[in-house]
Here is the input.
Amino acid sequence: MKAGARVEQFFVVTAGSIEIVRKSAAGEELITVERPGQFSGEVSMLTGRPGLVTFRAVEAAEVIEISRDQLVALVQTGSELSDILMRAFILRRANLIARGMGDVVLVGSTHSSGTLRIKEFLTRNGHPYTYMDLDKDTGVQDLLDRFRVTEDEVPVVICRGSSVLRHPINGEIADCLGFNDGIDQTKIRDVVIVGAGPAGLAAAVYGASEGLDVLVLETNAPGGQAGSSSKIENYLGFPTGISGQDLAARAYSQAQKFGTQVMIAKRVTRLSCDRKPFAVEIEDGSRIPARAVIIASGVKYRQLSVDNQSRFDCAGVYYGATFVEAQVCVGEDVIVVGGGNSAGQAAVFLAQTARHVHLLVRSRGLACSMSRYLIRRIDESPKITVRTHTEIIALDGDECLERVSWRNSQTGTVEPHDIRHVFVMTGAVPNTHWLGGCVALDGAGFIKTGPDLTAEDLTTAHWPLARPPHLLETSLPGIFAVGDVRGGNVKRVAAAVGEGSIAVSFVHRVLHE
Ligand SMILES: Cc1cc2nc3c(=O)[nH]c(=O)nc-3n(C[C@H](O)[C@H](O)[C@H](O)COP(=O)(O)OP(=O)(O)OC[C@H]3O[C@@H](n4cnc5c(N)ncnc54)[C@H](O)[C@@H]3O)c2cc1C
Here is the structure.
C-alpha cells in the first residue's frame, strides 16, 4: 500500500515481514519493520484520510487483511482489541509528529504570522510536518529555487512532495492533504454539529456511540478555545492538568472511533431552516442536509488590535484571571485591559498578589455597567492604577511576552514597559452571525434555549409544537445550542462537555417525534 492513497486495508503479519517506509528528500526512509504478530496502521486508519507511509513486503510474507470498515466495526465492539489498536495508532502518530515525519514541508519564518497560523493548524490537526526556517536554514533557498518560489511568497507548504501552495489558507492545506476526502456531503445526517470545540466533540462522541449518523463541521481544527489552552487544570479527572491540545486530540480520536465524520477547515456560512430536513451551508456553497442540528460554534474572545497578539496567547496574554493565572504573576506588574465588570473583578483579584495592576481603559472612565463595589475597591486600592484613554499598541518578546507599549490617545504619548502579563477582559463575541435569524438570540447575540425562551420569543418564532422547547433546544424544534455560544452557559470546558452530551438525549427524542 502506497503513501498518499486512502487507507483501506489493515494488515496483521503472520509470517515474514513488512517494511514501513516514507518518502524523504534523500529518497526513502525506513520507519520500521513489522514482524509476525505485529500490525500496520496509525491514526489515518480511523480517519480514512490518505496514509502517510508505504507498506511493502520485501521477503515472502503472509498477512491477514481486514478492510478499514471491518476494522472500525471491530474497534467499536471489542474493547480489549480497541484499547490495543487505539493506543498503538495514537502513539505511532505521536512518534511521526515528534520525528517531523509527515508528507508536508512548511517553509516559513518564525516572524511571520502566516507561518505561525499554518504551524498551529497542522499541529492542532495532529498532522506531522517538517519545518524549514528561512531565517536559519541555509538549504532552504535551494528548495525554493527548485519550486520557483520567491521569498515574498512564503509561507509555502509543499504537500506530498509535489503540490506547492504559496500563502495557502487552511482550507487549501486541508484539501491538499485529503483531510475531508471520502465524506459524503449529500447524505441526510441524523445530526450535524457545527463546531468541534469541547461541546461539539462531546455531542459527537455521545451521538455516534448511541448509533446516530453524526457529521461535525469545523472552521479550523478540533479543540476550539480549549485547544489553545496550554494546561487545563480544573477539568475533572486530570489532577495534574491536561494540555488543550491533548484533550482535543483524545476527544477527536474518541469521536472517530465511534464513527463520527469531521470536516476540517469548513466554515458554516448559513443555516437553512425553512423546511426539514434542515441544511447547513458551508463556504464552498455545498449544503449538508440534517434531521437535527447542534450549534456548538462557541465564542471568539475580543482581541487587542495588535498584529502579533495570538503569538502570546497563554504566553503572557490571558483571557481569564483565575488562581492559576494569578500564580504566574505573583509580585510582578500586570495589565488588565477593559472597563467592564470582568476587568474590574480581575483587577481587584490580581491586586491581591501582583506588585501592581495597570487597568487600561480606551474610553474616559470605567464602564457605567461596572458594579459600584468594584469601582470603590479599585479607587481604594493603592495597587491599582486606572489609565484612561489608553490602548496597547505593541507586544514584544521572544517565546513569551516581555514588553508592552501603550499609548494615551489624548496626549499621543507612547510608553514601553517591561511587563510580562496582560489580561484581556474586553468580552467575548458569540459565533452566531451565520444563523441569519433562524433562532432567537439574547441581547448580546448568544442563543436562547429551553426555559430561557419566553412566551413572546416562542410566539415570534412561530413555535409549532404543543410541548415547550427541550432543555438546550432553541426556538426552532430540532435545533440545539450547547457550550459557550448558548446564553447562560458558564464558559467552562466541563460545562461545554456536559451540555454536548445532554443535547444528544434530546436529539433522540426529536428524531422520534
Ligand atoms: C486560552 C483559554 C484558556 C482556557 N482555559 C480554561 C480552563 O483552564 N478551564 C476551563 O474550564 N475553561 C477554560 N477556557 C474556556 C473553555 O475553553 C471554553 O469554555 C470551551 O472551549 C467552550 O467550548 P465550546 O465547544 O462551547 O466552544 P469553543 O471552544 O469556542 O469551540 C467552538 C468551535 O466552533 C468552531 N466554529 C465557530 N464558528 C464556526 C462556523 N461558522 N462553522 C464551523 N465551525 C465554527 C470554532 O472554530 C471552534 O473550534 C479557556 C479558554 C481560553 C480561550
